[in-house]
Amino acid sequence: MSAILGGVMPHFPSPRLWRAVIALGVLDVIWMLAAGMRLTPGNPTAVAVAGGALAADILVKLADQIERRDAFLQQLAQTFLFFALFTQLMVLTSYLGATLALPLRDAALASADQALGFDWLAVLSWINERPRFGWALIWAYHSSGAQILIMLGFLCIVRNPARIAEFLTLYAATGATTLVLAIVFPAAGAYVYYAPPGELFSNLNQDAGLWHLEQFNALREGAMRTIVASEVEGLITFPSFHTIMALLTVYAVRGYIWIFVPFAALNFLVLLSTISEGGHHLVDVLASMAITVCAVLIYRSWSRTAAGPGWSAPQAA
After folding, report:
1. Contact criterion met (CB below 8 Å) for 204 and 277
2. pLDDT tens for residues 263-310?
3. Which of 64, 117, 143, 249 has minimal Cβ neighbours within 10 Å of its Cβ?
């Protein structure tokens, strides 16, 4: 895409990222045709947002061609276009993966928690006894998407394409890893497995960790043949992609101390909220932490090798 748009930012985003989006899109189309599934946009607003992002990218390209180049607008358009496309394709793939109806792994995940000495029901009860804290966790959990948009917009404003490219690469790599694991090791979630009595989460969100269940079961049973884009839910339990997003968001703003500190504090709450609001097993979170750390280390090693002597990690501008 950088080359198509005039090469203002030769390292952003990497052609590999766009090839990954195309490959995932082709996989989804083939899978849907083979499975007899269909996709509808649903809410017209969703279509308008997606169309607006694409239109913005086209307009920036035209501006380049008539020598009214604005690197900021180009960077902004490409960033949000890639993020939106990959995220939507990732959600679609998770829906298609659920149709395989592989055996649920909640029992194994719960056993792993117990082996670590983690009592999920006791933790849920402890949070429920502190309503203000519990609602802070609910708010934090549902802030993840907005946080990423703010973070990406901030990095565009400070003109740090290297850091954006790093985030998008890590987001795509961890997202792809998460998809494979979620499809091969599906789980319904801790709320479904433990079926806690209402008094254990009476002060919390009554739909916590359950909002996906109707569509998840319908897909596994073959009763859902149409995916409505504007009505999709997060189906992935293992590993926890909320955990990955929280860690990558904080990592992306390192060096910008005035935004790093509040993001770090907020995403610490996001990590805690994956239990009570996300309905994750502890091992979902631990696995996601391991995936994120490995992805960062591999990316840094690859970047160092590709750049040769004198390489340093993307810095705060």
Report:
1. yes
2. 999 999 999 999 999 999 999 999 999 999 999 999 999 887 766 555
3. 117
pTM of the predicted structure, to 2 decimals: 0.86
C-alpha neighbours within 13 Å on the C-beta side of residue 202: 5
14: part of which helix (H) or strand (E)? none
Sequence-distant (6+) residues with CB within 8 A of 185 are 102, 105, 238
Q: d(Cα 278, Cα 245) in Å, to the nearest integer?
A: 13
3 state SS of 226: strand
Q: Burial, 115: exposed, middle or buried (Cβ in 10 Å; 0-12, 13-18, 19+)?
A: exposed
What is residue 314's predicted lDDT score, i.e. its pLDDT? 64
**C-alpha torsion angle, residues 259, 132, 247, 155 (rounded to 10):** -30
Give the span between the Cα atoms of 299 and 213, in whole angstroms: 35
**Residue 310 to residue 189: CA distance in whole angstroms:** 46
Q: Of 113, 53, 43, give the one whose Cα is nearest residue 282.
A: 113
Please classify residue 307 by burial: count the beta carbons closer than 10 Å to its beta carbon, then call 0-12 exposed, 13-18 middle and 19+ buried: exposed
DSSP-derived secondary structure letter, 239? S
Could you give the CA distance from residue 264 to residue 285 in angstroms, rounded to a whole number? 17
Alpha carbons 138 and 123: distance in angstroms, whole number: 15
Q: Which residues pair with 197 in a beta bridge?
A: none
